[in-house]
Design a protein that fits this description.
By secondary structure, this protein is of the alpha/beta class. The chain contains eleven helices and 18 strands. The strands form three sheets. Strands 1, 12, 13, 14, 15, 16, 17 and 18 form an eight-stranded mixed beta sheet that branches. An eight-stranded parallel beta barrel has the order 2-3-4-5-6-8-10-11. The chain starts with 7 loop residues before the first helix and ends with a helix. The chain binds pyridoxal-5'-phosphate.
């Protein structure tokens, strides 16, 4: 059942004692449709970004039927929701039992790897299946990304041609994948990566079936305003079409953040003010991990009925509720300078890497409640795009 869409201001009067998330179905559909209309790649949604069932369901209805999963629990979760979804198990290091169950119990046929040892594991645990597609993960420099993902996974470019060749001798279909890093601030990240990878592929002398440019598509944050999303798509389309025999390959991408960031906000309450420090009821051990050491600056808004645009703003930092001093979010977060204890604050762009990060450290954790709202996102990459109608939302809820 669809919840009726409310305004955030009307919700906080319910006086929640813990932080909670609000969900904007329209913002999620808008992002998914934008990718569907402007991007020629088949998109796999990176489930770790936001595995909430209602999020996956909306994406599915918007046409995203492929999912990038990294654990057997994610595999089972998505399969339970959609019997016909195509699952790509894209973690390059998988437990043996997870490979076996994914293949035999959940129908997974796509796996990634970055080493010969993992290739052996996959072949053994699928009883040398003939219908596998294996995607070789390459390590490329994450020069333009806010969060680098280059070190942990990926075969280096010198050894990659050999590994690609070996994989192609063992299975029916082969792809390559890479990740340019999360929150890529320039489309050149993809241009450079695709050129480097294309060279490796050529050296391998294998005709690939899949070419996967990974995730990394940005969202918009204060002080971190990326170029237009279309520019990223155009860069990828252009570079991909320069690869010899590109038309024999299926182009894949694994967007996470860019699809879901805008669809949720976190609502927190100020428990105390000391100077320009606000003690709030969520923090880095809760939903706000990325506001801690990674120092993401999220858009914020004081929730109140009156017009506040005339009020002076001040730069605040936040402390979270636990007793640990790492539970600190430097910001700056700009809020009206008379913000006080008992005020509620909306923290935007929390749909990506927010909902599932919370621990129960010190007895604090956000509420499980998810309230559907109609307020527009605090910042958006998709402002000029189509309006989503109420009818479209009702179809999904039915
Ligand atoms: C996390 C992850 C993604 C999603 O990345 P975003 O930067 O959120 O788009 C995609 N692919 C892989 C393999 C990942 O680990």
């Amino acid at each position: 059942m669809a919840q009726a869409l409310r305004t955030i201001a009307s919700v906080v009067r319910d006086d929640f004692d813990t932080s909670f998330f609000v969900f904007r179905p329209k913002a999620l559909l808008r992002a998914a449709h934008f990718f569907g209309q402007h991007f020629k790649a088949n998109c796999l949604f990176a489930v770790k970004t936001n595995p909430e069932a209602v999020v996956l369901t909306h994406l599915y209805h918007a046409g995203i039927r492929r999912f990038d999963v990294a654990s057997i629990d994610e595999v089972a979760h998505v399969r339970r929701l959609f019997h016909d979804a195509e699952l790509y198990f894209m973690h390059p290091v998988k437990p043996r039992h997870a490979i076996r169950r994914a293949y035999f119990e959940f129908g997974v046929r796509h796996f990634s790897l970055d080493s010969e040892r993992e290739l052996e594991k996959i072949l053994q645990e699928t009883d040398f299946a003939q219908d596998l597609t294996l995607h070789v993960r390459l390590s490329i420099p994450n020069t333009y990304a806010e969060l680098t993902l280059a070190e942990k996974f990926g075969c280096n470019l010198q050894e990659a041609p050999q590994l690609i060749k070996k994989v192609s001798e063992k299975v029916a279909r082969v792809g390559i994948c890479f990740h340019a890093g999360s929150q890529c601030m320039h489309p050149d990240a993809y241009r450079i990566a695709i050129r480097m990878v294309a060279e490796v592929v050529e050296q391998s002398e294998v005709q690939l079936d899949f070419f996967n440019v990974g995730g990394g598509f940005p969202s918009i944050y204060p002080g971190m305003i990326p170029p237009y999303m279309e520019d990223y798509f155009e860069a990828i389309h252009h570079e991909f079409a320069r690869i010899p025999h590109y038309e024999k390959m299926t182009l894949l991408a694994e967007p996470g953040r860019a699809l879901v960031a805008e669809c949720m906000s976190l609502i927190v309450r100020v428990e105390l003010r000391k100077g320009n420090m606000l003690y709030i009821n969520d923090g880095t051990y809760g939903s706000l991990f990325d506001a801690g050491t990674p120092r993401f600056i999220y858009p914020v808004k004081l929730i109140c009925d009156e017009e506040i645009y005339s009020r002076d703003l001040a730069a605040f930092s936040f402390y979270g509720p636990t007793c640990d001093s790492l539970d600190y979010m430097k910001g700056p977060f700009y809020l009206p300078n008379d913000t006080e204890e008992g005020d509620f604050i909306e923290i935007g762009q929390m749909g990506a890497y927010g909902r599932t990060m919370a621990t129960r450290f010190n007895g604090f954790h956000p509420s499980d409640t998810l309230v559907y709202v109609k307020d527009e996102p605090l910042m958006t990459m998709y402002r000029d795009d189509e309006e989503i109608s109420d009818e479209q939302l009702e179809i999904i809820a039915a």
